[in-house]
Amino acid sequence: MKTLPKDVALYKTTILFDNLTVPKGLLKNHSTIEKVWGLITVVEGQLIYIIQEQENITRKKYILCKGEFGLIEPKIKHRLELPWKVKFKIDFYKKQA
């Protein structure tokens, strides 16, 4: 998986989500805006991170376990699946001007 570019800075962190508190929008295809990256951090358990190439065509599918990270690229559609117990957060980064 790719890594964060060097010219981004953290600007927001979500609360710790679990299977009951995850926002429903994260389970449907969505994307960040231009110049905004995300980093999913699994704290406990595991989840599935799916990156879409086109609508309904999976480009990449990752199982992220405790201590692993999932990179969210700007404007790329993605979603999460939570078939197992999990706790995770998402850090958001903006590209510096």
What descriptive keywords fit this protein?
97 residues; globular; single chain; mainly beta; 7-stranded antiparallel sheet; Jelly Rolls; 7 strands
Overview of this protein structure:
This protein is mostly beta strands. The protein has one domain: Jelly Rolls. The chain contains no helices and seven strands. Strands 1, 2, 3, 4, 5, 6 and 7 form a seven-stranded antiparallel sheet that branches.
Short description:
This protein has 97 residues and is mainly beta.
Rg calc = 13 Å
Give a count of the beta strands, DSSP E runs of length 2 or more: 7
Structural class: mainly beta
Shape annotation: globular
Give the H and E element order: EEEEEEE
CATH class category label: Mainly Beta
**The CATH topology is what?**
Jelly Rolls
Distance between the termini: 25 Å
Quaternary organization: single chain
Q: Helix count?
A: 0
What's the mean pLDDT score? 93
Q: Approximately how much beta-strand content do the residues carry?
A: over 45%
User: How helical, in percent, are the residues?
Assistant: under 10%
Largest sheet: 7 strands, antiparallel
So, the CATH homologous superfamily? Jelly Rolls
